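Researcher: Can you fold this with magnesium ion in place?
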Amino acid sequence: MSVNHNNEAQKADASKAGATSHAPSNFLRQIIENDLNAGTYAARRWAGQPGDAATQQAGQPDPAKIRTRFPPEPNGYLHVGHAKSICLNFGLARDYGGICHLRYDDTNPEKEDQEYVDSIADAVQWLGFDWNAGGVEHRYYASNYFDFMYRAAEHLIETGKAYVDEQTPEQMRANRGDFTTPGKDSPFRTRTPAENLARFREMRDGKLPDGAAVLRAKIDMASPNINLRDPAIYRIKHAEHHNTGNSWCIYPMYTFAHPIEDALENITHSLCTLEFEDQRPFYDWLLDRLREGGLINSPQPRQYEFARLNLTYVITSKRKLAQLVNEGHVTGWDDPRMPTIVGLRRRGYTPESIQLFAERIGVTKDYSWIDYGTLDACLREDLDPKAARAMVVLDPVKLVITNWDQVIGAGKLDDCHAPIHPHHPERGQRQFTFGKELWIERSDYEETPPKGFFRLFPGNKVRLKYGHVIECKGAVKDASGKVTEVHAELIPDTKSGTPGADAIKVKGVITWVGVNDGIAAEVRLYDRLFTDPQPDAGGKDFLASLNPDSLKTVTAYVEPSLASAKPDEKFQFERHGYFVADRKDHAKGKPVFNRVTGLKDSWGK
Ligand code: ATP
Ligand code: MG
């Protein structure tokens, strides 16, 4: 296919490149711009890899103006909410001369699956981003920092900022207090650093069973922020880790591990969702202690929160998505109805449309729901200038041209053509034939037309797009009254594109496919997976609102140009919407198309 030098293609290219001038400003951009102007991070050094203060100080001036990170836990497939986070973190790094790290947050010794690790990398690359900057792979595993995390924990103990607590979990919960009641100090809180260090090492050496003790930061049991009431930072778990094997039987808690991961990687702006706002004081407390102790590079990272993506008709909890898969409500993680990145991809969404969506919804600190129609609008905007057109009949009934033999000739076929894309004549033409028998949409014929119906009914004339004008003469029905054939006569000298073709005015134009050269294809008509716009809000049972009609499979007839469709190739089926050749099931000789979305928004209705 030729390269287009037209406006639409240029626009598409510009949005793909995500030029800075394009992106609307937001509070995160302002924070970053202020930091760049103030030179907040200008003097930082970088050793070429993650490391502690001494390592980084021995390095070069950091070539990255800012560093962000996308830190998924490799315990499931990424979804559209993660896509927002990927576009945000990688997009900001790209726009401000920075680098974004892909970091697997694999500090939990739960069963980690290489399948998830790989699918996360695929998702990031498919969305159009890269953790490789200047030949360096910025793909990191948090479990590689266990040694440093342990050292940081001992540092806190030695400086009187952490203690080993051996209360039972019940006692600990009771003594934590609540919003109105301050917590109570643990009887173990007054242990000396030497006692704590000895006991912590026993924890590390496997002398204690799971749950017998935890290491807690020593902050303030009366803090109005419950997260500062001596949070647990290390726990005992005799479990094998996919990366470190059996080296450890104690593992850091997420709230302790995450700030350290950011610090070791020289992250400047650590972006997370609003649920972590209450954790920020601990994030700062911990990094302040480690910086004061000379353990981490300076200036330290800062955390900023934004509102997570809530999309109508969609659930974005990995656990609930797993339930849909495990209970067979969908065919898998990549079912085209799933909001996973693999699902969106198979459904036919493009990386460009998802990037555009992320940019358009922007980032805010307000809790809100984004209408699903916004994503579809971005898809149409991306595909309209690109997708090849095709005629397809989804619900076929046969149309017979009863005067064909007289006006054209028995057994003859009439060659027709149409532009591959109406705005790109340079892309050429599609060819197909008009004959005595054609497929049309069943809904294009009405025996008794309702008001405003301009298509086929006895006595009415319509144009068959790119073909001839015909006059409807009625229909043949079976015993049950179902129409089996529509009959019409061709009006001579009305062929599209020939002189005088428009002499006869018609109000209706319908699409069709020749019986002679049409190809039978499986078409999967997807609809929203849930009927409730907020399927799991407020603890609702989301299974109760599963849409029983979320998939309707039909045998359609498609025009012959689609015989060469490749898996993943997108089309606009005229009058019907955007479709993609299924990346898994479509094959030459066995075409399968998925509906991505219609031509107009139908989500609001
Ligand atoms: P889940 O709760 O479904 O397991 P998670 O947030 O725990 O999702 P992680 O793998 O820990 O999943 O998330 C990686 C990153 O993606 C985090 O920085 C998180 O803030 C971000 N993220 C996850 N869900 C959303 C969302 N709906 N909108 C925006 N960002 C999100
Ligand atoms: Mg998580």
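Model: Folded with magnesium ion in place. The chain has four domains: 8-146+256-306, 157-254, 307-389+517-605, 392-511.
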